[in-house]
Specification:
single chain, 212 residues, alpha+beta, 4-stranded antiparallel β-sheet, globular
Length: 212
């Protein structure tokens, strides 16, 4: 397993990506798992899903700089948290990579996606017509993935399963570049919030992240 990306966003938050090169058995050897986690591991479909779950935990160990057991449960909405450490966290994975975002103040969200043409088939499922109107044809696939990652990052930050990418989020117009920022509006329980979400192309992947 190799650290592929590490970025200190500010004094209170950082993100990291690891390229997964080990077997599941090798990853397990880096961890201490309790009975509940062992049961969770057994319930996962073998293959990438198992590797992703294990790799995010190994990456957490690297970022927290501890050889001790790390308790990382999920709340009723599926949002992971660290009851024994003073950090908010967000986890992501895609194909050969796992990612973690840590924040010591506020909440955060991160998403990593491999860039593929298939996003063209589902663009209307997560973007409104006014959002699709500002997509640059010259960068269509990349910009669509930047939008998806931004909405996914905000979704993870707010932690409520009932939020819809299409109905409850709106991205303000922005010009695509290989690295940039956009504003995402979230309408939740009659209240509107604006989040500044950063994105960047990482090899054949798109990365999006947000913290407040």
């Amino acid at each position: 397993m190799a650290l592929a990306y590490l970025k200190e966003l500010d004094a209170n938050s950082r993100i990291a990506l690891w390229k997964i090169e080990e077997s599941a058995e090798q990853l397990v050897s880096y961890l201490q798992l309790d009975d509940a986690e062992k049961a969770k591991l057994e319930s996962l479909a073998k293959g990438k899903r198992t590797l992703h779950w294990l790799a995010t935990r190994v990456l957490l160990r690297y970022l927290l700089q501890t050889p001790e057991y790390i308790n990382c449960p999920s709340d009723p909405n599926g949002k992971p948290y660290l009851p024994d450490f003073p950090y908010e966290i967000s986890l992501t994975h895609s194909y050969d990579y796992a990612g973690v975002m840590l924040c010591s103040t506020g909440v955060c969200g991160i998403d990593l996606e491999i860039v593929k043409e298939k996003v063209l088939r589902i663009q209307h499922k997560f973007l409104k017509s006014e959002e699709l109107a500002f997509i640059d044809p010259a960068h269509q696939v990349n910009q669509l993935y930047a939008c998806w990652c931004a909405k996914e990052a905000v979704y993870k930050l707010q932690g409520n399963r009932g939020v819809s990418f299409l109905e409850d989020m709106l991205i303000e117009p922005f010009q695509y570049s290989a690295q940039g920022v956009m504003n995402v509006l979230l309408n939740k329980s009659g209240k509107q919030e604006r989040f500044q979400v950063y994105y960047e192309r990482f090899n054949e992947y798109m990365l999006g992240y947000v913290n407040v």
